[in-house]
Amino acid sequence: MSTRLESPHLQGLEFRSKLQTILMLPPVVSAAWLHDHLDDPQVAIADCRFSLMQPTLGREQYQAGHIPGAFYLDLNQDLSSPVGEHGGRHPLPDMAQLSSRLTAMGVDSTLDEPTLVVAYDDSRLAFASRLWWLLRYLGHDRVAVLDGGFAGWNAAGYAVTQTVPVPKTGAFVPRSRPDQVVTMEQVKAQKDLPGVVLVDSREAERYRGEREPIDPIAGHIPGAVNYPWQTVTGADGYVRSIEAQGERWETLRSAQEIFVYCGSGVTACVNLLSLELAGIQTGKLYAGSWSDWCSYEKE
Question: Is this structure's pTM higher than 0.90?
């Protein structure tokens, strides 16, 4: 028995039980679907709202109002590690610490049908996709992002709350997939090989080096092609159709490996979500991204 996601933007995707012969998990769920499953003990909700320019804004927004039952995960504190000399502006988090946070959200990865985690933000999936990718990297495939984000939830007229949920009892056991990440050394050694494509996910102006608001050096990694992450969704934050995602990546479909990066390894995850929607399984994250790459350029 399958439950359709009922998203007008992503018709055709289905959620199926892990007990079925074919396992097909939804990368995206609609506000209507989430509203109908707010009381489902097998669903955990993560509010990932954040602002790179105002790091406390996301938490303040959460405190002012969030989807009932949602726990807040902070990009800097929960979904990243402290910044070092190298490794980029948002190094991958301490996995034990993140696992502890997920456990307290009631996420159980040990069940025959593990908890489905739904992540949302209000930034066209920029931060929700980070959690989506991290969970898959940790071996937890039952994770989705909320189509339209928090704004879409509000537009549908669904209730919000200021009540912070009490910690729950879960059992999140990480099973890392190290082959889903590439290092600077790997990128440098393999980016020009036949069958390997390097994708820069930043907006075109940053890719071309015409503007660089964050990192000390402008430009892009030699050989990279540009697929801005913002084009995965419309301006309203809703994911473009499955057909549009497929057309977006059509010229790269035959690539053996696709290394994806952005400024710090966050918005690149939106492109990895897009690749998943397009049915392309060869995408890998250069977690340090441009901020890591240019930290070596300064030496």
Answer: yes
